[in-house]
Specification:
Layout (H helix, E strand, L loop, with lengths): L1 H10 L3 E7 L4 H16 L4 E7 L5 H12 L5 E5 L5 E3 L1 H8 L2 E4 L4 E3 L13 H22 L3 H9 L3 E3 H6 L5 E2 L3 H8 L3 E4 L2 E4 L7 E3 L4 H9 L2 H20 L5 H19 L4 H19 L5 H17 L11 H26 L6 H5 L3 E4 L8 E5 L2 E6 L9 E8 L2 E6 L4
């Protein structure tokens, strides 16, 4: 009797609800592992994890599936909301769950392994990787009693099916409109946890939403190639500006933070370091253009280097691991326009009238402080008192113009009143 009551209490715990939306990455695995541990520590009735993913990294996917397979509480993977999908790595995660559910208008499939780094793989290696993925997914399907034939088809042929078909052929067990509908469907179902049967009591269980922590959201943000690309550029140019203008501080601080975050993001993504080198070279060429007269050749070289580096930075067959064309175009235009502006300002400055020295004072307007003759006199010009001479007699307080400089004496002429 006491044992039965204890089991009832364990089954009547809170229902934990989480959500994986986006690429399967280290951030995703960190989040899901944490939520499962939290649910286990608090004797949760079950964990419902809503997913909508195009796929992701193999290492992160295997970490997630391994943790689900060894969970001490029932883990329900729910492909939702309407329009969501469980593609590629999402297929493995759904198959690993104790109970798989899908919402109307969702789909699952296309689990054929692809090269994350964009490198060319020969046919033998492709076959090895495919066979490994098939064996892994079929083993999971066998452990959970799901459709093994379709699992192999999803990997070898990139097959994809909708929620209704998945329910019919034994890929998922529940077809639910929303989380509340799913909770009603779960009530009374029997799942096996490490060889022991367990009946779910979900009808009246409290629901507790578990969101991603700030750290997990930051990690998820950094696994976006566009964000990693922008951070890398901000870091490189920030440090270059600080080195060129020591003491500015702000570019150095921002650049240092951004480049550290950028390199951390590159560590999480399949990156081509030739692209990083080309982007760094573009920054060097742009900076040199400011200090070297090249007729714009360094700027052109910098733009070409930046474009090529951006294109090959994340060379992947997977769409969500490639840079957006829109981001590349906008970034290149902004950086190129900035340095072209600086270059034009430098060229304009070369043709500008000098403000110091002999050339700087010729043409300046001053006021005679004494009568000025050929023998000399005094004027006030350019904020200073100067000795001055004139071929014409200039009366005191008359406005004069400097027409020449002889050593420390200015030659002036009176400005006739209009």
């Amino acid at each position: 009797m006491i044992l039965w009551a204890l089991c009832f209490l364990l089954n009547a715990g809170d229902i934990y609800v989480g959500e994986l939306d986006g690429v399967i990455s280290p951030a995703s695995s960190s989040y899901l592992v944490r939520v499962i541990k939290l649910a286990e520590d608090n004797d949760a009735s079950c964990l419902i994890m809503k997913i909508d993913t195009p796929g992701g990294l193999d290492l992160s996917m295997r970490e997630i599936t391994k943790r689900i397979l060894n969970a001490e509480i029932p883990v329900v993977i729910y492909v939702a909301p309407k329009g969501a999908r469980a593609a590629s790595a999402g297929v493995f995660i759904l198959y690993a769950s104790h109970i798989a559910a899908m919402a109307p208008g969702t789909n699952i499939g296309a689990a054929h392994p692809v090269s994350m780094g964009g490198e060319k793989i020969d046919s033998v290696m492709i076959e090895k990787v495919t066979n490994d993925a098939v064996a892994y997914l079929k083993a999971i399907a066998r452990a959970r009693g799901r459709n093994e034939k379709w699992a192999e088809k999803a990997v070898r042929e990139s097959a994809s099916i909708d929620a209704e078909t998945a329910l019919k052929i034994g890929v998922c067990e529940i077809f639910a409109e929303d989380v509340n509908d799913l909770i009603s469907e779960l009530d009374g179902r029997i799942v096996e946890i490490k060889g022991k049967k367990r009946t779910l009591k979900t009808e009246s269980s409290p629901v507790k939403d578990i969101a991603m922590s700030f750290k997990e959201r930051l990690l998820l943000l950094l696994t976006n190639p566009n964000i990693a690309y922008i951070l890398l550029l901000l870091g490189i140019y920030g440090l270059f500006f600080e080195l060129q203008n020591p003491g500015m501080i702000f570019p150095g601080v921002v650049g240092g933070i951004c480049i550290i975050l950028g390199f951390y993001a590159l560590h999480l993504l399949p990156v081509n370091y030739a692209g990083v080198a080309l982007i760094a070279l573009s920054a060097i060429l742009f900076i040199l253009e400011i200090y070297t007269t090249s007729g714009g050749l360094l700027t052109v070289g910098g733009i070409i280097s930046l474009v090529l580096g951006s294109l090959i930075l994340f060379e992947s067959n997977v769409p969500f691991l490639r840079l957006s064309w829109e981001v590349i175009v906008i970034v290149v235009i902004i950086i190129a326009a900035f340095f072209i502006f600086l270059l034009s300002m430098g060229i304009h400055a070369q043709f500008k009238k000098r403000a110091t020295g002999r050339e700087g004072i010729i043409g300046e307007i001053g006021v005679a402080k004494t009568d000025i003759k050929v023998s000399g006199g005094t004027i006030f010009v350019h904020g200073e008192y100067w000795n001055a001479i004139s071929d014409k007699l200039v009366k005191r307080d008359v406005t004069v113009k400097v027409i020449d400089v002889k050593e420390m004496t200015l030659k002036v002429e009176p400005i006739e009143p209009a």
